[in-house]
From TrEMBL:
<dbReference type="GO" id="GO:0016020">
    <property type="term" value="C:membrane"/>
</dbReference>
<feature type="signal peptide">
    <location>
        <begin position="1"/>
        <end position="18"/>
    </location>
</feature>
<feature type="domain" description="Protein kinase">
    <location>
        <begin position="381"/>
        <end position="651"/>
    </location>
</feature>
<dbReference type="InterPro" id="IPR003591">
    <property type="entry name" value="Leu-rich_rpt_typical-subtyp"/>
</dbReference>
<keyword id="KW-0675">Receptor</keyword>
<dbReference type="InterPro" id="IPR051824">
    <property type="entry name" value="LRR_Rcpt-Like_S/T_Kinase"/>
</dbReference>
<keyword id="KW-0433">Leucine-rich repeat</keyword>
<dbReference type="Pfam" id="PF23598">
    <property type="entry name" value="LRR_14"/>
</dbReference>
<keyword id="KW-1133">Transmembrane helix</keyword>
<dbReference type="InterPro" id="IPR001245">
    <property type="entry name" value="Ser-Thr/Tyr_kinase_cat_dom"/>
</dbReference>
<dbReference type="InterPro" id="IPR011009">
    <property type="entry name" value="Kinase-like_dom_sf"/>
</dbReference>
<dbReference type="InterPro" id="IPR055414">
    <property type="entry name" value="LRR_R13L4/SHOC2-like"/>
</dbReference>
<dbReference type="InterPro" id="IPR000719">
    <property type="entry name" value="Prot_kinase_dom"/>
</dbReference>
<dbReference type="InterPro" id="IPR032675">
    <property type="entry name" value="LRR_dom_sf"/>
</dbReference>
<keyword id="KW-0812">Transmembrane</keyword>
<protein>
    <recommendedName>
        <fullName>Protein kinase domain-containing protein</fullName>
    </recommendedName>
</protein>
<feature type="transmembrane region" description="Helical">
    <location>
        <begin position="296"/>
        <end position="321"/>
    </location>
</feature>
Amino acid sequence: MEALFTAFAALPGLKVLSLVSLGLWGPLPQTIGNLSSLEMLNLSSNNLNGTIPVEMLGLRNLQTIVLDHNKFTGEVPFWISSFSGLTVLSLKNNSLNGLLPSSFSRLGNLRILQLSMNNFNGEVPDLSNLTNLQVLDLGNNSLGPKFPTLHNKLVTLVLKRNKFRFGMTHNLSSFYQLQKLDVSSNEFVEPFLPSLLSLPSIGYLSIAGNKFHGMLLKNMSCGADIKYVDLSFNYLTGDLPACLKLGNKSQIVHYRGNCLSNGRQRQHPYAFCHNEALAVRISPQRRKENEPSSKIVVAMSIVGATSLAGLMVLGVGFVFSKHAFKKPRTRVILEKAKVLYPSKLFLDAREICQMAKLGPLGLPAYRNFLLDEIKEATANFDVSNLIGEGSYGQVYKGILGNDNMVAIRCLKVRKRRGIQAYTHDVELLSKLRHIHLVSALGHCFEYNSEDSTVSTIYLVFEFVPNGTLRDFISGQKPIWSKRIAVAVEVAKGIQFLQTGMMPGLYSNNLKTTNVLLDHSLHVKLNSYNLPLLAENKNKVNMLSSSGSKEVSKPIVKQDDKSDVYDFGVILLEIIAGREITSDNDVSVMKDLFEVGIKADKIARKQILDPAVHKECPDNSVKTVMEVCVKSLSEDPNDRPSIEDVLWNLHFAAQVQDLGQGDSPSRKSSSPVFTSQ
């Protein structure tokens, strides 16, 4: 490390230093202070440790500091405010501790402050002077109990899994730019302010796992952009607002564990929330020092109140026993052995947030779910949770006991067999773990009561919230560089399906409607040719969203080249920015691309989606068109491998980044294309 940073110091004009995921370890050397011209420093996802060195004071021009996902310890240094031009400070997922420095208030240019998943405690300093701050993430610490003082221009505010207790509702009513608010899993005991639902920009609101109380009304209004609301496990009464239960499949609403009268998700009786709300409103009595007997009186009062409360809880528990929430046991499936897994791992928020305990993708271990868990997650397969229905059965959205969102696919078994017959299928399913796949989290078998054969199989996948690639292309009209990035991610997902598992999965029937996008708009493939799915596929005629028959690819002998053909159709939509819904569409667009490749750059850009044709280097466009046309070849032998597809797409991305013509490093012919 010392030699590395000494070498960097020999570059007097160095402004950006990004060393991400390189396996660097040890403390930051003192020589880092010699990089005086540095404006951006990103050392995330390494194994760096020790304290943040004071020698960084020499980096007076720093505007961005990103040290996420390392092992830094100690406190955030008070001298951090010396970086007057700092706009981004991100120290997520380290082992930093202590109080947050009050000097934060002097970082007037700060736009993003992310300190989640550390060990900070105590009160948050006054941040109301940070008028440019848009993103504040302090989740997964021990901060509180007072809600922080903030400026009302925030766009994202995440305070989940801390110890905040009071002062929230009166502070947020004027935050008109707020799009995301997450204060879940804290200790708030105050009335819930319904106007949070109607903030003009709000799209994501979670107050789950607190003690908010108050009454909701059916005629309350909601913001026009609200897509996700979680009110679960509080003491809310009244009626669920009509604006939260209109059956909108793009809107996710959770409200179980309250005392609402008109909801479908499981609720407590009214008395439960009423009594608990009364309890949290009682102010603790202060003992006067000149009244020595008061200690005895208060103690007797507490004992009496505890006894009475115990009787009340027993009574409420008896009434509510039929509807009580079950804490199901969780089991990890390892071939033939069934190992009990402590439920605390899935319920303890602090353990869940640690990526190392949940695998490289931050997902829980693949496991066997209980049928009660599946029913609880979907409110007994309530129609409001149905998000899809097709040739592979129905798909429901659900929320598990650890508050994780999931998608659950229900397969009705036509050929009933015993559980042992599905061992190979389950093993293959458990391997579906990749950054560009909708990963499998587990399964559940429902048995026939008469002969103990499997009658229904429930497959549990991670939930991907941001819609399909087709919606993304037609709605947001992404820029050209983003379209290339999406194409690369689709290809990487296909490559993993074919080569990342044994045996590989081929002929996966990929199209833009089953390529999904996550919170960060990264690709997740949602279509696999699993034997388990193929065996139970319903014989129905699949239609696209437009009502047209889906594209049917030519019959091929090489299964890996079938996926490449599908990828070619996806590229057609990415390039042209329009839906491809029939074989005729494919044929027409392919012919048009072939002409465009041989024509000049003006003709090529006329083929592009008008939303992007002005910004694209011609060589980048031509390369992607070539990939597309080759992938759609009638003869599978003429189609490139998925590795060759990736090579050429990376070249197209490089040309785009350079913003110029052909790169000297590229030969006249690539592994896929020959000069014509």
